[in-house]
Amino acid sequence: MSLSSVTIVGGGLAGFTTAKELRSRGFTGAITIVDPEGLPYDRPPLSKGYLLGARGAEAIQLTKAEWFAENRVDVVSGTVAELRPDQGEVVLEDGCTIAAAAIVLATGGAARRLPIPGGDLDSVLELRSREDADRLRALLRPGTRLAVIGAGLIGAEVASSALRLGAEVTLIDPVDPPLAPAVGPELARRLHDMHAAEGIRVVTGLPTGITRDGGEHYVRLASGETVAADVVLAGIGIVPRTALAEAAGLAVDDGVLVDESQRTAHPRVYAVGDVARTRLPDGTLMPRAEHWEHAMNTGTTAAAALLGHDRPEHGAAWFWSDRHGVHVEGVGSMTAEGTTVLREVDGVPTVAFRLDPDGYVVGCAAVDGGTAVRAARRMIDRRIKADPADLANPAVSLRTLAR
Ligand SMILES: Cc1cc2nc3c(=O)[nH]c(=O)nc-3n(C[C@H](O)[C@H](O)[C@H](O)COP(=O)(O)OP(=O)(O)OC[C@H]3O[C@@H](n4cnc5c(N)ncnc54)[C@H](O)[C@@H]3O)c2cc1C
User: Fold this and answer.
1) Candidates 90, 92, 292: which one to mutate for ligand 1, based on the most atoms within 8 Å of Cβ?
2) Domains in the chain, number
3) Are 196 and 299 contained in the same domain?
4) What is the pLDDT of residues 337-371, one digit of tens each?
5) 2 — pLDDT class (breaks 50, 70, 90)
6) 227, 240 in Cβ contact below 8 A?
7) Residue that finishes a domain, picked among 206, 234, 262
8) Which of 100, 183, 384, 393 could form a disulfide with 187 if both were Cys (CB 3.0 to 4.6 A apart)?
9) Which residues of 68-88 are buried (b: 16+ CB within 10 A; e: fewer)?
10) Does ligand 1 come within 6 angstroms of the Cβ of 12?
11) What gap in Å lies between CA 203 and CA 319, rounded to an integer?
12) DSSP H or E segment with residue 197
């Protein structure tokens, strides 16, 4: 198919990567990225360096502003209100239309609101955009009482950053420890315990309501306890932004359903990044991924598919997170059927491997163990079998095992 134009709805990492990859693969047609937030920027720093003030707005841009003119990629600051793939266009909220021989949906997700009374208060903050981070940053001063609801990846990072900014942080989650599905229960325990050790008040409990009295917030818990806070932030996950796809009649099930080449059921529409969910040829629905590398990989894949190129190969799913000065990484699945092998240093778990019933590594997570995760990824991708005793033994080089 010879394409005249590709319009990308959403300029996050997935949308931007699609544009970049289209150009690097030689596409010469028109490329437009539409996003109300303007030039693409990176989100992971929003809970880390950007929130801490160590990196500014320019430092988190995905590329220099000149790149867009140099590569003839138009960035339109606007919101797409309707997809019209059959007419080859998208319609913006202001009524303008943009030609779109193909459409790539890269709308990401919106922060999930707390489904409790008071959860919709405008002073209950979320962290998804640079504007959200600016708002939170402006409220965090030494001594500010911050209640973070949700101790998963983003909640834990915000709690850690806020502590460094001098805030008095209470971290609330009904699950103890959170994150076990992502890193396994042993590392999840270790990571969660770090919060209290660093000076965060950790509360295991289910929030049931939030009230505000002047500048004061009260988070009520099912136990009857109330947490008072100046600032409340909810970090309880995202909801994929699928409204445009649904209105266009595309199949949606916790994400816009796509095949392994990011194609939706409509031949002119693709979906990438956090908003997309893969349905395998046998109908199996994969869990929707919400990680940085996945956003990039799906953008690359969509660009290849749009141009009729072979599907690029990507390794097992990978993510990272930073908190309290430690670096966490995970690859593959820690919830797959099988057993867990721990590698401990001085009795402290540092790497967890998930082995399937045949003994193959299918998942790995590590605290300050990037090399281990890279080795595990190679074992997963190449189906390299390793002896569990070697995996557990810190004296055995994982790099050697992965060869
Ligand atoms: C605070 C934070 C920290 C994170 N940290 C990590 C981390 O440490 N490690 C990791 O692996 N992942 C991390 N992530 C996740 C990672 O950033 C996301 O997976 C990635 O940003 C997803 O990219 P995306 O392009 O699919 O969506 P997004 O980055 O969400 O971009 C979607 C874009 O679509 C735009 N949009 C929405 N609707 C419309 C519309 N109708 N018209 C036009 N534009 C629209 C939005 O304005 C937005 O810019 C973090 C995310 C956040 C928010």
Assistant:
1) 292
2) 3
3) no
4) 999 999 999 999 999 999 999 999 999 999 999 99
5) confident
6) no
7) 234
8) 183
9) beeeebebbebbbeebebeeb
10) yes
11) 26
12) helix 185-198
